[in-house]
Each structure stands twice: as C-alpha cells, then as structure tokens.
Design brief:
Elements: H1 12-20, H2 29-42, H3 47-52, H4 54-60, H5 66-70, H6 74-81, H7 90-108, H8 113-119, E1 126-127, H9 141-153, H10 160-169, E2 173-174
Parallel strand pairs: 1-2
Helix pairs in contact: 2-10, 9-10
Length: 178
C-alpha cells in the first residue's frame, strides 16, 4: 500500500517533513523549543517557507541552545535582523529570546517545556484518526488552554493557533493520516 499524505504535503519537501518529523512524539527539550520557535515564525507565512529555512534558523539561533539564546543582546538582535536567510521579524526574534529566558527560569525551577506541554494530555497523544482530506482546525480548546498557560508564564507569540500547530508537529496531537 502506498503512503497516504495529508493534503498539505503536496510536494517532496513537505512529504519528507511529514515522513520524518511531523506528528512523531517529541520529548527533547531543545527540539520542543526549536519547533515552538519555528511555529512562532510561521505565523502569517506558509510552513514550507519556514521549513526551507530551518538550517538557517538552526545556525542563526545557536542550534536552539536555550542558554545561548537567552544571552542574546541588542547587538545580536541587529545581527539577526541583517540575516537574509531567516525571517527578519524583530518582534519574533525578540520573542524567541524572551521565550528562551522564560524557559531558562523554568529549568532553574526544575521544570521543563516537555513536562508542561505533555502534562495537558497525561503524556499520551490525542488521536485524531485523520484521513488525507481531513482539515485540521486552526485551534482547539486544548491549544487555547496551553496558550493561556504559556502567556501566564511569560512566553510571547504563543497564541492558540501557533500552539495547535506545535501540538500536531511534535505529536502531542496525532493528526497523521491513518
């Protein structure tokens, strides 16, 4: 039987993303922060645009080392604003640094983004039993609740739509085609 793809996986790049990344459970803290950041940058753009630039984002943001990003200063922000290989949105760059600092404080308290995100589903992915033509919602009550919790913690650019996209990308919500 040939691989079934969701409608959005319409080209080779998106099919590779679907085959190797999208919807598989992620518990690695750095990778969760990376995907949160990429999803945040995606707001208002296509995911394909962001995914094509993923290597440039990895390089620009110190391979998403939370400690390093938390130490970024105004000079580094200006350097990132000159980097044509990434999305040069000052508010999103500043939000990434802010989010790394919030996460750094979380870690100092013995907390993790992994635990926070997965605690909302008791560590078990929500199964959507999607078909290739299933249209996923832009947001859900779960993503709204998590977005509110992240905002309360101090995270920026983490609204319900961004969070739902993240939940699907990291397998907390399993929207993979059955």
């Amino acid at each position: 039987m040939s691989q079934q793809y969701p409608n959005w996986a319409h080209d080779q790049l998106m099919r590779e993303y679907y085959d190797h990344y999208w919807g598989f459970p992620v518990h690695d803290e750095r990778e969760l922060f990376r995907m949160l950041t990429l999803e945040m940058f995606q707001a208002g753009l296509s995911w394909a645009t962001i995914w094509r630039k993923q290597a440039a984002f990895d390089e620009a943001f110190a391979n998403f080392d939370i400690q390093q990003i938390a130490s970024f200063d105004d000079q580094k922000i200006e350097q990132l604003m000159q980097n044509a290989a990434i999305i040069r949105n000052r508010r999103k760059i500043e939000a990434t640094i802010n989010n790394a600092r919030v996460l750094q404080k979380y870690h100092e308290m013995g907390k993790t983004l992994d635990h926070l995100l997965w605690s909302f589903v008791n560590g078990q992915p929500i199964e959507l039993n999607a078909q290739s033509d299933t249209v996923l919602p832009a947001k859900t009550s779960l993503s709204t609740t998590i977005a509110q919790q992240l905002k309360k913690a101090g995270f920026k650019f983490t609204g319900p739509t961004t969070i739902f996209s993240l939940l699907c990308a990291v397998g907390i919500v399993n929207g993979r085609v059955k």
